[in-house]
TrEMBL record:
This is Glutathione transport system permease protein GsiD. The chain crosses the membrane at residues 15-39, 60-81, 101-119, 131-153, 208-230, 242-263, 275-294, 306-330, 350-371, 414-435, 455-478. It comes from Sulfitobacter dubius. The lineage of its organism: Bacteria, Pseudomonadati, Pseudomonadota, Alphaproteobacteria, Rhodobacterales. Belongs to the binding-protein-dependent transport system permease family. Coiled coil: none annotated.
Amino acid sequence: MEQLTWTGSLTGLNIIFLGLCVMLALAVAMQIVVSFLPASDAQEINPDGTVARRGGLAGGLNRAVILLFALLILVLLIYIVAGAFMGPQAGIFGGMSQQMLPVWIALILTFAVSIHFKRRLGLYGKLFDSTVGMIGFAIVMFWVFTGVFGGLFDLLVTHDSLSQTSGMKNKLPGTPLRSPEEGEYPWFLLGGDNLARDVFSRLIKGSWVVVQIAPLATLFAFMVGITLGLPAGYYGGRLDTILSFLANLILAFPVILLFYLLVTPEIVLTGIPNYMAVFLFIFPLIFLAVLLNSRYYTQPSFRTPLLIVVLGIVGWLYLSLVSTDGAIVATDTYRIPGLPSTIDLFDIDPGVLVVFVSVVFVNSPTVFRIVRGLALDIKTRDYVAAAQTRGEGPWYIMLWEILPNARGPLIVDFCLRIGYTTILLGTLGFFGLGLESESPDWGSTINAGRRLLSLYPHAAIAPALALLSLVLGLNLLADGLREESLRD
């Protein structure tokens, strides 16, 4: 078998692609230059007074940029579609595109269903009216589906991410295996790393690590921040002073130093991360209890059974989260028992638990301050005064009057914070903290590949680009959500 090129039989498209990139770059540069010139008065006005179309040189450049960008996306789609059908005949991109076929199908179905029902889907549906939001959503969902299909179900990987293959150490992308066995994928699409492992498969597996930890850790941080931030902003006074002081105390520490302290083996052996997990993970339980109780307080016959069922299930999940091998905390000197292994739903890897707790602990104070600020502003609105006049309780007002009206900024911050968390996970992996050394997470993979970066850059560049693209997608998604939420 021959070495694969990047585009194989689609080489003819490369000239078109590069030409469009050059023209787009020139058009954007000219757009920047023209923006410093006096504005032209040539523009078309709608009957309602809004600008329908800009005229003159600025308007022409704006249309040119949009057209060139659309053509560039079209060429990329041709690469993907042709590669999905042709496979390795279309080179490395074709092989990867064919492997990612379940992801493309899932993306198409997601967009088709979402666009069809977008008027019924609230803020999520309005996202599809924003070009920036749709691009960000597509990038984010690409990595979500990649993590689920590749990391959870092993549908996308070409080789075992931990297996070493003879003769494939530091091999370039597209290198064929010397003697592949029957049914074995015959190429390393993105080459081999310094331990002769498939970079493409490790990239796919690494996305599952991010998809598992980043959104859930951010969600738990929001549960902590909301549960503490709402009463701090609503009640004020001494409660606000104490909670704000604690939040500022945590934020005063440099983030990397705080992470380093929490994930060092000496701290882990003391059981401190486990105690922190017990404390931080109980906030979703408190949040749900207060939420349901405040909503159905006047219907005790319905509220009580509902609370028993919901809190029973969530409490079971909570104990399963904080229990590992039948113990909540297990040190060399003592052991605090947890759920028995027979009813423990899952055991979290100790390294993952430490990283998870660290991310929640670091993000919670920032979320607290945002929620507190929003509560301070919204509690002065007329509808809050109307709810107080009706005799509604404080928690009902906080959770059913203030919180829904703060959803716009919180949803935007949630997307941005997942991006920050992704970067933090990459940073931890890069420094070899928390996760195991052979973990395929992107930070660890970048760290392993940087040692030979000048000679074999592919092992580090691939996960670095993946990390960059996911964070970029989350930022674009947040911009789209912010744009649409401001229109409400």
